[in-house]
Amino acid sequence: MPNRFLLHLGIAFQRIGRLTVARNLISVVDDDESVRGSTKLLIESFGFRAAVFESAEEFLRSGQLEDTSCLIIDLQMPGMNGLQLQSHLAAEGCRVPIIFITSYGNEESRRQAMQAGAVAFLGKPFTDEQLLQCVHSALREFSREIGGAKNLISVVDDDESVRRTTKLLIESFGFRAAVFESAENFLSSGHLNDTSCLMVDVRLPGMNGLQLQSQLAAAGRRIPIIFITAYDSQESRRRALRAGAVAFLAKPFTDHQLLKTIRSAVQPDEGGTKNRA
Fold it and tell me: How far are the Cα atoms of 54, 178, 192 from residue 152, in angstroms, in the given order?
């Protein structure tokens, strides 16, 4: 079910993943079974994968640390508490973004958690909008850590609402974004040399997406291209992918699909493959 916080964007996005499918994981550590269950369902409703653990020790033994893109932890737990887990991870050089959740928050705990680098400190009960915004902040931080902000994603689409919402989504991943209403505008913009990945609509006034792909190839430009379209056809898909497109995404696409596809485009050595979904 799409989260209502996103509906104003005009695209029914699911919530985002990270890098590759294997790393698309939000881990939750809380000793309250009901909180674990409800938080897991909420995270999955955003489109993430979720793993839950009843203690910090169970999480550390699980082998899921390397796959975790964001960690949500309770402050007060039997054994190792949330602040101690944060300190342990920092001592090990692990910089996974952390969101604290607690029913017993106090200013000293909040100060300690935030000073040590936590993304957020949420009091229970929290709203799904609050959690979603915090997870977004965590993933933006992670993307910048690995250099995502150095990459410019250019979007060519004649639909102003698609340009606007796609730009917001790309920037929420930690990338830079530039948008253009036509292929001609993009080619004359001066951004061609800076573009790490090009998202282009198949149908455009003037030069269409397939023609832009052909022109770039003829000029020796090897920019990874992701096609987006509301008018999917097997022939267009076949032509685009045969000519080297990274992906051919039908609108509306999920942000999970988009992030995974962008990552495969800008970091192909990270296990990226052409996405024919």
Answer: 40, 7, 10
The pLDDT tens digits along the chain (277 residues) read 333 333 333 322 333 333 332 345 899 999 999 999 999 999 888 878 899 999 999 999 998 887 888 999 999 999 999 999 999 999 988 888 999 999 887 889 999 999 999 999 999 888 888 998 898 888 777 665 555 545 789 999 999 999 999 998 888 777 889 999 999 999 999 888 889 999 999 999 999 999 999 999 999 888 999 999 998 889 999 999 999 999 999 888 887 788 888 888 886 544 334 444 4
Domain shared by 140 and 154, yes or no: no
Last residue of a domain, one of 116, 145, 174: 145
Tell me the CATH number at 54. 3.40.50.2300
Domain count for the chain: 2
Distance set, CA 230 to CA 61, 179, 203, 227, 237 (Å): 45, 18, 9, 10, 12
Contact 30, 42 (CB under 8 A): no
Last residue of a domain, one of 145, 173, 198: 145
Residue 277 resides in a domain = no
| Token pair for 142 | 């992670």
User: Which of 66, 49, 64 is CA-nearest to residue 15?
Assistant: 49
Total-model pTM: 0.50
Q: Which two tokens stand for residue 158?
A: 């004649």
In sequence order, what are the residues at sequence separation of 6 or more whose Cβ sits closer than 8 angstroms to the Cβ of residue 63?
A: none
The answer to whether residue 275 is domain-embedded is: no
Same domain, yes or no, for 136 and 92?
Answer: yes
**How many Cβ atoms sit within 10 Å of the Cβ of residue 149?**
15
Task: Say if residue 68 is in the same domain as residue 192.
Answer: no
Helix and strand element counts for the chain (H, E): 10, 10
